[in-house]
Amino acid sequence: MTSEFDLIRRYFHWPVHHTDLGGGDDAALLTVPPGEQLAVSTDMLVEGRHFFVDTDPAALGWKSLAVNLSDIAAMGATPRWATLALALPDDDAPWLGAFAGGLRECADAYAIDLIGGDTTRGPRTINITIFGTVPTGRAIRRSGGRPGDELWISGHPGRAALALWHLRDGIALNAPWRDDCLHALHRPTPRTRLGPALRGLASAMLDVSDGLLGDLGHILETSGCGARIDAPALPVAPLIDACGDAALARRACLSGGDDYELLFAAPAAQRPAILDASRAAGVPVTRIGQLTEREAGLVLVHADGAREALTAAGFDHFADRG
Amino acid sequence: MTSEFDLIRRYFHWPVHHTDLGGGDDAALLTVPPGEQLAVSTDMLVEGRHFFVDTDPAALGWKSLAVNLSDIAAMGATPRWATLALALPDDDAPWLGAFAGGLRECADAYAIDLIGGDTTRGPRTINITIFGTVPTGRAIRRSGGRPGDELWISGHPGRAALALWHLRDGIALNAPWRDDCLHALHRPTPRTRLGPALRGLASAMLDVSDGLLGDLGHILETSGCGARIDAPALPVAPLIDACGDAALARRACLSGGDDYELLFAAPAAQRPAILDASRAAGVPVTRIGQLTEREAGLVLVHADGAREALTAAGFDHFADRG
C-alpha cells in the first residue's frame, strides 16, 4: 500500500479557505469567530452496514460528508470544517480517487475546509468529524419544544426509502420520479441554508436520519411532549407519483431514513416567518402536526378522523426491517 | 446488539466540565476562549493493525486517547475536548466496559471532556478526534526549525519498542525495568504540560509516534534543514538497564515509535528556559544534536567521531520491521 502520507497528499490535500493551518502538522488550527460557539458532530460509516462493497464511491464520498453537514444544520449552525479518517483494505486507487472526488464535490458545494485526516489499512470505514459555528446561545436543540408548537418537516422525506426498497426489494418506481428518489438516497441535500434560517423561529429541531417518527421520538423525549401527526398533511404527493401506492408512500415518509430533512417545532406565531425562511432558503416546508402534552403520547390522525396511538415501541412497526 | 443509544448512555455518558452542550443532540457545543485558536487532530485505530484482538481493552482505551492528546501537546496546545467513534463486532459488554473505563481514566487524568460519539456494528475500529486550544499565533509547528537550533527529546524514547520486541520477539528485559517498558507501550504519558510550556522557546516540534529518526525527517523536510544527532548524547541509559544491550537500546531509541515523546528544536539561547520548563513540567529533556544546513543531510555522529550519513530512505534501515 502506498504510504499514508502519499495517500493524503494525492487525494485529500485541497486548499483551505477559512482555516489558519490545514493538514500536514500534528494538528490543524482554526479560529472560531468571536461571539460564536463551535458545533461538533462525528459519524462513522462501515462497509457492509452503512454502505455496500459495490456502492458508487463518488456518491459515497458525497454522502459521507453530506450526512454530517446535516447534523450541523439541524443545530441551526453553519458547517465550516471537517476531518476525515479512512480505513481501506488495499491500495485501490480508482475507488479512492472517485471517493475523494465525490467528497470534494460536496465540500466545494458547501464551502467546507477539510482540515486533517488519517488514512490506514483496515476494513473499509469512513469517519468524518464536522465543525460548524453558531452565534452563542442561538443553537436549536432537540429539547426546546412545548405543547402547542406546530410540527414542520422540510422537503419530501421518504424518497430515499423508496429508492432503497426499489434497489433492494424490487418495488417499481415510475421513471420520471425514480431518478429523484435515487438522487435523494445517494446524494442527499443537507439543509444548510434552512437550518440557520430557523434560528429564533424553531423551538426544537433535528435531522431525520432514522425515520420521521423515530426521530420525532427524540424531540418528544427531550422536550417532554407528545405529538399529533395529521396523516393527510404529510407531503407524500411526489412519493405517490413515484410508487403509485399511497400506503407505501406514507410508510416511506413516516419510517424511511436517509433523506436528511429537518424536522422542527415552532410556535404558531412563527408561521409567516418560517415560510419566509423556507422561501429564502429555497426549501419547501410542510406543517404536519402539533406537539401536545406528554400524556397524550404520539397519535397519528387519519383522513377519516381515526386516531392511531403509537407507543415508543410502536415506532418500530414503521421501522425499515432491512 | 444493544442499540446505539443504550451503548452510548451506558458507557460514555460522562459529565462534561468545560463544554456548553455535551452529547445527545445533533451536535455538541463548545466555546473557544477569546484570543485562542482551536487545534484539531484525528486518529483511527484498527484491530489487527494498531492493536490486537487480545489487547487489554482498558489499556487500549487509555492509549487511544493518550496518543491524541500527544498530537495536541506537540503543537504547544492544551487538549480539552474529544469525540469518539467506535465500531464493534458484537455486544461484548465486558470489553466495552473495560475500554470505556480506560478511556475515562485518561480523560479524567487530563481534564478532557468527551463531547460526542458514534457507535456502530463493524470490525473493531476506534476513531478519536481531539480538540485543544492555544493562544492565537503561538502554536509550535514542525516547520520553524533553523540551522543552528539545538535538537531536544523528552523522556526516554525506545521503552515502548523494547516492550513490543519483548512481547512479540521474546527479547529479554530485566525485571525492574520491564514494567516501565510495558507501561510506556500500553499506557503512554502524553506530554501535555511540557508541550505548552515550550511555546516561545521551541522553534519546531512534533511527537514521536513512528520513531525518532523518521519523525525528525518531518521537521527537516518542512523546516528545510539537515541535522546532526550525537549518538553518545541519546538518553539510552534506562534502555540499556532494561535490555542489557547498548546497540539494541540505541536502535529502540532512534527507531522505536509509540512512546509519544516530544522532539523539538530551539535556539541555543533558550537552553536555560527549556530546562526550567522541563523542571516545571516534571519531564526530563535531553539535547541530542543540532539542526544544520539542508545540504548536510542527516548525520549520526558516533562516540569515536565516526559520521554515519543517513538519507531519507536510510531512516528505513532503523525502521521496526514488524
Record keyword descriptors for this entry.
about 325 residues; disordered C terminus; EC 2.7.4.16 (chains A, B); ThiL-like (chains A, B); four-stranded mixed β-sheet; thiamine biosynthesis (chains A, B); homodimer; Phosphoribosyl-aminoimidazole Synthetase, Chain A, domain 2; PurM-like_C_dom (chains A, B); seven-stranded mixed β-sheet; alpha+beta; 60s Ribosomal Protein L30, Chain: A; 10 helices; globular
Could you describe the 3D structure shown?
Chains A, B: Pathway: Cofactor biosynthesis; thiamine diphosphate biosynthesis; thiamine diphosphate from thiamine phosphate: step 1/1. The structure is a homodimer of 322-residue chains. In chain A, helix 3 links the parallel strand 3 and strand 4. Chain A is built from ten helices and twelve strands. The C terminus of chain A is likely disordered. In chain A, helix 2 runs parallel beside helix 3 and helix 4 packs across helix 9. Chain A has 322 residues and is of the alpha+beta class. In chain A, 34% of the residues lie in helices and 25% in strands. At the A-B interface, strand 1, strand 2, strand 3, strand 4 and strand 5 of A face strand 1, strand 2, strand 3, strand 4 and strand 5 of B. Strand 2 of chain A pairs antiparallel with strand 1 of chain B, so a sheet runs across the interface.
